[in-house]
Design brief:
The structure is a single chain. It is globular, with a radius of gyration of 26 Å. It starts with 18 loop residues before the first helix and ends with a helix. By secondary structure, the chain is an alpha+beta fold. The strands form six sheets. The protein has a seven-stranded mixed beta sheet with strand order 3-5-1-12-9-10-11. The protein has 16 helices and 27 strands.
Length: 710
């Protein structure tokens, strides 16, 4: 790509264009859309995990002043498609999980709707339910594919024979917990059917993809896509949970259909989001590594057991990163699912890579310990020449550079490899490392239009900004592609009236949308040159990716952990990430993304655990009072750096995705640092004090014995 401007916009630390609107409160989110006579919707949720509704008494609710309608399976219109059972709102009396919507109230205020919903009396015929994930279940099955379309199992060579012949082995089981996205903006939808009754639906929805939401909702209601408009200029966080519509979007549309011409608003409460907006499945990972005394890995395997919902399958691709991360002639990955009576799992930041790097990266640390080798050196020693499995060359792979740069910045060379020997007052001190990776995805469809309006170049594409910086970075790409100052570029996003854009998922947004913008700019300059007339316009679409290369971003996470010798509390004074993620479009927004991902990874390591009571199928800590996340007290310094990386193969900008790689590897680095601090290997997340205290009680005696023997 040849840029025409002398001063490039890409790479400049420009402030967010949407920053002032968000700080001042003038940015309009889905629930805040200014509409006259808006009504409010509140769901009634099941209190059983499996069975059917036998009676719904709505008398008291309907008698309440301000209530306009109570939706039940008996009064709600039939949808055109119920193939996706998660979206089949109020289509029958069956209950598939605790918290499923069984009725809903529409009222003239949110307070009245909520009160009325509490007055609806529901009777059930309860069936036996099962929510317990175990690796020894006899009903586990292999899915046809794992998210989105990867093979469930892969095998190369003979892992069992290589393990038997290996001089040093690791064979351990690691678990990650059930996690819930908790974006600051709850999942919200405002729905309005055209008052003229011509079947046109407008949704103001908090979504990561207006066009993909339109496609899904049009199918559910049996509408042509041009009869549905979805608007979403701002999203207050999504992290994958808003990547596809959930049942509340359908429910809002159904309620608005029952009251034509009246807009209906629905914002899920924090507690409702724990049942209705997806979650990350818990995983059980058996990881095996076999190596010679020099640290060369001869066998690598991960066998994953995870949970899905009985009403709809979602298979997280947890074993995927192990397929390409390190060199080994013998490799195996498998996935088994348990279909249980739980809400439907879904995307959460870095699905697959996030949980799937925990077990293998802790196992790598254990292998380094048994070899007596530095864990950074072990990773470098097993660097592949080409992508394992496919044999394709890497478009660029700078994992080794990330490890070495991170080690230098972190002061890794001063590390004493022995665990449990450093102490500062009442705190044991340790350091840990883990690698991170994320594929570089480019979606197949996205189109941009560039038009000259006066002295400004307007770029239109139906992209989303989840707080990631799209409002700011797309103008930077367009400016350089057009060869004009970035101040002359305006973007319009977040509306299906704009050209089609792919969903903001898989860290693919800027790679895909930016490529479409570049194509539009090339078409614009090719058609009009450098002196276009007012109103000049051109369109461009994303091209096919170069499939001759394996494309990934890489990173190295370093953590310092302090463990209190008396209480077992864990603090992380330092967390460092060094990344190789192609060309950075905007350092300010990029650093925010890296640090945000690392913060979520720290939460995963120390706190996050959705506790599901198997007796009821209920997540008992379903709010931010008890669903603990990282706070300032947990960490003093989080820092993110990146390598200068030129990769001409990924796209015209040379960029890779950055929204998700920050979370990958962080939890493993923290767990490894905790082991180095106190000698306790925590293989089951989160790393909580109850898992450390028994060993800490033995620590004085162990230290005394060591002192006597020396």
């Amino acid at each position: 790509m040849t840029f025409l401007s002398d001063t490039e916009a890409i790479g400049r630390d420009l402030p967010r264009r949407d920053g002032a609107a968000k700080v001042l409160g003038s940015a309009t989110y889905a629930f805040e859309t200014p509409l006259d006579s808006a009504l409010h919707l509140h769901p009634v949720q099941s209190t059983i995990a499996r069975g059917r509704v036998t009676e719904l008494d709505t008398t008291a609710a309907e008698a309440l002043d301000g209530v306009l309608a109570v939706l039940t399976p008996g009064t709600t219109e039939r949808l055109a498609s119920t193939e996706d059972r998660e979206l089949a709102a109020l289509q029958d009396e069956e209950v598939g999980f605790r918290g499923q919507i069984v009725a809903a109230v529409v009222a003239d205020s949110s307070e009245v709707a909520r009160h009325a919903a509490a007055l609806v009396r529901v009777c059930y015929e309860q069936a036996a339910h099962d929510t317990e994930l175990r690796a020894d279940r006899d009903d586990l099955y292999t899915p046809d594919a794992v998210n989105p379309h990867f093979p469930s199992d892969t095998a190369e060579g003979d892992v069992d024979a290589a393990m038997a012949a290996a001089e040093v082995t690791v064979d351990e089981t690691y678990t990650t917990a059930m996690y819930h996205n908790n974006p600051m903006e709850p999942h919200a939808t405002t729905a309005l059917w055209d008052p003229e009754g011509d079947g046109f639906l407008t949704l103001w929805d908090s979504t990561q993809g207006v066009h993909s939401t339109r496609t899904t909702i049009a199918s559910v209601f049996g509408l042509d896509e041009d009869r549905v408009r979805v608007v979403c200029p701002y999203v207050g966080g999504g992290f994958g949970s808003k990547g596809q519509p959930h049942v509340h979007v359908v429910l809002a549309a159904l309620a608005a259909r029952a009251l034509p011409g009246r807009p209906v608003r629905l914002a899920l409460t924090r507690r409702q989001m724990f049942s209705l907006a997806g979650h990350r499945t818990p995983t059980i990972q058996r990881c095996r590594l076999g190596a010679d005394r020099a640290g060369t890995i001869a066998a690598l395997a991960i066998d994953v057991v995870e949970r899905t919902s009985r009403i709809k399958e979602f298979a997280e691709q947890t074993g995927m990163p192990a397929r390409t991360m390190y060199a080994s002639p013998n490799r195996r990955t498998t996935h088994l699912l348990a279909a249980l009576d739980v809400p439907v799992p879904s995307w959460m930041r870095a699905p697959g890579e996030c949980p799937g790097m925990f077990g293998p990266e802790v196992a790598m640390d254990e292998l380094a310990e048994r070899l007596g080798m530095d864990p950074v050196e072990l990773r470098i020693r097993n660097e592949p020449d080409v992508e394992p499995g496919s044999g394709r060359p890497f478009s660029s792979r700078n994992l080794v550079g990330c490890l070495r740069e991170g080690a230098a910045r972190f002061g890794w060379s001063e590390r004493d490899p022995r665990p449990g020997v450093r102490r500062r007052g009442d705190w044991l001190v340790g350091t840990g490392v883990a690698s991170s990776t994320y594929p570089t995805y480019r979606m197949a469809q996205s189109t941009a239009t560039i038009r000259l309006e006066g002295d400004r170049y307007v770029t239109e594409i139906g992209a989303a900004d989840l707080g990631t910086g799209t409002w700011t970075t797309l103008p930077q790409i367009a400016a350089d592609a057009l060869g004009v100052p970035v101040s002359r570029v305006e973007v319009r996003i977040g509306d299906t009236d704009l050209p089609m854009a792919s969903v903001a998922g898989g860290s693919s947004g800027m790679t895909t949308w930016g490529s479409a913008v570049v194509e539009a700019a090339r078409a614009f300059r090719g058609r009009y040159g450098t002196e276009p007339p007012d109103g000049a316009e051109a369109t461009g679409s994303v091209g096919d990716p170069d499939e001759h290369y394996a494309m990934h971003a890489y990173g190295a996470q370093f953590a310092e952990a302090h463990v209190n010798v008396d209480t077992g509390e864990v603090r992380v004074p330092r967390l460092l990430g060094v990344f190789a993620a192609g060309r950075i479009i905007n350092p300010r927004t990029a650093r925010s993304q890296f640090i945000g991902g690392m913060t979520m990874g720290l939460s995963m390591a120390l706190h996050e655990d959705s506790v599901l009571d198997p007796r009821t199928g209920h997540v008992v800590n379903h709010d931010l009072a008890e669903y603990h996340i990282t706070a300032n007290a947990d960490v003093d310094e989080i820092d993110a750096h990146w390598l200068t990386e030129h990769d001409p193969h990924v796209n015209a900008m040379g960029s890779k995705g950055i929204g998700e790689i920050g979370i990958v590897g962080t939890a493993a680095a923290v767990s490894n640092a905790v082991w180095h601090a106190c000698g306790v290997r925590v293989r089951d997340l989160p790393v909580t004090l109850d898992k450390l205290l028994p060993a800490l009680e033995e620590l004085p005696r162990a230290q005394a014995r060591a002192s006597q023997s020396s």
